[in-house]
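quick q for whoever's on today - can somebody do inverse folding on this one?? i tried earlier but teh output was garbage lol. tokens:
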């Protein structure tokens, strides 16, 4: 079953720095497949392995005509030039908040076969590459906000239906019947 449950804010795996991939085997290829299927099913612009409960440094992305994956990514270039715009996360469903990010980045890593890969991104792809790399360090986009924006975001988070009852860990199936948050 390739489509996996997406972990939500409150799940400790989202706050755990992920381990580097050391073996480029079938298991890794299955993980990339699961990430891709789950991302496309959601749908989302990107998905990092911790979001499906796997603490490894892998993510997939799907922005405009750029779709792919990256293993052990490193942001080798981040422009000083910034962009400002709305950002969301499948682990915080239904919530979008404005966030400043570098306008252009270069991410280096490997594909699932262990070949070196470099991805240059601007605008939405640059935002996505920064967001997904952050996930692998246990960092969420709400952590990157300045104080006023963060305060507003936390207020909205408290009111999010999926965050009610103080549940520290909430799991939903991507196939759960009608999801009002998308
Ligand atoms: Zn995210």
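ok took a stab at it. sequence:
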């Amino acid at each position: 079953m390739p489509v996996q449950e997406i972990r939500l804010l409150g799940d400790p795996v989202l706050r755990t720095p992920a381990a580097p991939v050391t073996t480029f085997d079938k298991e890794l290829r299955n993980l990339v497949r699961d990430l891709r299927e789950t991302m496309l099913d959601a749908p989302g612009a990107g998905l990092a392995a911790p979001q499906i409960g796997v603490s490894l440094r892998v993510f997939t992305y799907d922005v405009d005509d750029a779709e792919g994956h990256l293993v052990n990514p490193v942001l080798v270039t981040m422009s000083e030039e910034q962009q400002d715009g709305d950002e969301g996360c499948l682990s915080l469903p239904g919530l979008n908040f404005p966030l400043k990010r570098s306008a252009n980045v270069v991410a280096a890593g490997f594909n699932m076969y262990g070949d070196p890969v470099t991805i240059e991104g601007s605008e939405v792809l640059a935002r996505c590459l920064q967001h997904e790399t952050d996930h692998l360090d246990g960092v969420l986009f709400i952590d990157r906000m300045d104080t006023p924006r963060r305060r507003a975001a936390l207020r909205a988070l408290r009111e999010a239906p999926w965050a009610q009852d103080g549940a520290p860990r909430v799991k939903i199936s991507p196939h759960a019947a009608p999801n009002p948050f998308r």
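fwiw The mean pLDDT is 91. also DSSP finds three helices and nine strands in the chain. so keep that in mind when u check it
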